[in-house]
Inverse folding.
């Protein structure tokens, strides 16, 4: 899931927002044999006849398929690649938990690209008028139509199992909820199914599980920063911006977003990774013991690591509505931004007063909503309650659904394993100790034992269900 804190400024990266930095699962430089694809499916642009001009129109939806393990009566494991070009994840077709399940269950694995991402784009650009068919309802209907119409090398009607992680984990769960007649089972990993626009809780697991000295140092620095930002001392503000190498900025909220940049590294922590960017960041405080020292080393980190190549303030400001970041309709980041602006929010803002905050209180919902307005020309209103009522949120109880989360995952705060969510059937609910974002996807001989145990539990549950198909 894209971590949304520093948006549009870094288009090659991303948050759950417009593109900050998220390492998805380990990517391998692999060229797949032609037998796996890509293949293309004629997908409907509009499944619900909202527009007479698109009633029969289609686009080519890209997918890959691995059927080499298939035996009669085996299932199909369908993975939707979610909010990215599927080429970034196509190696999953031969190296992932989904592929391992297909092998163990003598089934087929299919990886399909989400509409409006990669090559599966219905229109030549991402202008606002072309984005109307990018929504949850259409995306789920894509999967239904694909399952019903795609030609696969089976001699029977197979059970379809949706597997997904992060946003695609939502898709897996929602498909089982909304299309139980065609989706036999679902595996939803790190799925933030509880929609929340003001997602200040994103930082709670970092505070809860992060290195204590590092967390205290960050909070101390943020408190010092806010004392200055909320004052009327313009000279002190200029000195602060200069200290962090951001003297070209004119707006407090942009400054707040940039100094929060290192926090995106938490969800990027990988199993057995000793070179994680967040833990490396925390090391800067090792020899510091006072608030002044905390701010000094934090500022130096931002200067040397984050913005040292951004000499032009236009490149790092979100306040210019004429910036190409908003006006260039070909920028691919617009797809996920549109989804967050219109349906999901997921905006990682500062905690309310009375709570410890890892980011400045200048980073509020207005900072995100302004970018939606500048990009798409509309002030969208997301009604969390209506969306969660329709798709269940924490209260969604689709049968034959496995829920998986990492204990330390920031997105767990919106998953069914949130401490605020109703209790789940323990046999179908898996929390991987000390894990972060959809770690269950990892496959191979070096996979940690805790992940292997979760994968074996998934396999046993699915085997039990399939006996009754």
């Amino acid at each position: 899931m894209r971590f949304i804190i520093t948006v549009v400024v870094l288009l090659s990266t991303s948050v759950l927002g417009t593109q900050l930095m998220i390492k998805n699962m380990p990517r391998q430089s692999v060229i797949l044999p032609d037998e796996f694809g890509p293949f293309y499916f004629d997908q409907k642009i509009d499944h619900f006849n909202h527009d007479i001009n698109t009633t029969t129109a289609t686009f080519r939806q890209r997918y890959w398929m691995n059927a080499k393990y298939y035996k009669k009566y085996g299932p199909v494991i369908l993975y939707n690649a979610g909010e990215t070009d599927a080429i970034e994840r196509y190696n999953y077709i031969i190296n992932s938990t989904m592929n391992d399940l297909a092998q163990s269950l003598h089934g087929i694995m299919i990886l399909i690209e989400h509409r409006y991402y990669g090559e599966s784009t219905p229109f030549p650009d991402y202008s606002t008028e072309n984005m109307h068919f990018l929504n949850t309802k259409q995306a789920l209907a894509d999967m239904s139509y694909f399952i019903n119409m795609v030609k696969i090398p089976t001699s029977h009607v197979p059970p379809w199992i949706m597997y997904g992680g992060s946003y695609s984990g939502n898709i897996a769960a929602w498909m089982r909820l909304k299309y139980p007649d065609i989706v036999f089972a679902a595996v939803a990993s790190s799925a933030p199914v509880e929609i929340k626009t003001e997602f200040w809780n994103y930082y709670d697991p970092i505070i809860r599980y992060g290195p204590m000295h590092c967390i205290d140092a960050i909070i101390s620095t943020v408190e010092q920063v806010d004392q200055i930002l909320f004052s009327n001392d313009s000279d002190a503000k200029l000195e602060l911006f200069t200290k962090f190498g951001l003297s070209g900025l004119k707006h407090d909220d942009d400054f707040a977003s940039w100094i929060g940049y290192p926090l995106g590294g938490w969800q990027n922590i990988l199993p057995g990774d000793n070179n994680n960017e967040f833990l490396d960041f925390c090391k800067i405080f090792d020899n510091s013991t006072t608030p002044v020292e905390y701010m000094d080393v934090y500022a130096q980190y931002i200067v040397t690591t984050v913005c040292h190549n951004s000499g032009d303030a236009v490149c790092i400001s979100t306040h210019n509505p004429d910036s190409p970041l908003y006006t260039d309709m070909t920028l691919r980041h617009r797809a996920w931004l549109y989804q967050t602006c219109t349906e999901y929010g997921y905006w990682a803002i500062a905690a309310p007063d009375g709570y410890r905050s890892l980011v400045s209180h200048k980073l509020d919902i207005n900072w995100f909503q302004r970018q939606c307005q500048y990009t798409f020309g509309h002030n969208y209103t997301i009604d969390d309650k209506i969306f969660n009522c329709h798709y269940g949120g924490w209260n969604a109880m689709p049968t034959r659904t496995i829920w998986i989360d990492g204990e330390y995952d920031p997105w767990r705060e919106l998953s069914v394993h949130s401490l605020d969510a109703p209790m789940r059937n323990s046999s179908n609910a898996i929390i991987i100790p000390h894990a972060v974002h959809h770690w269950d996807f990892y496959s191979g001989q070096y996979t940690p034992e805790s992940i292997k145990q979760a994968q074996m539990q998934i396999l046993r549950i699915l085997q039990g269900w399939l006996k009754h198909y």
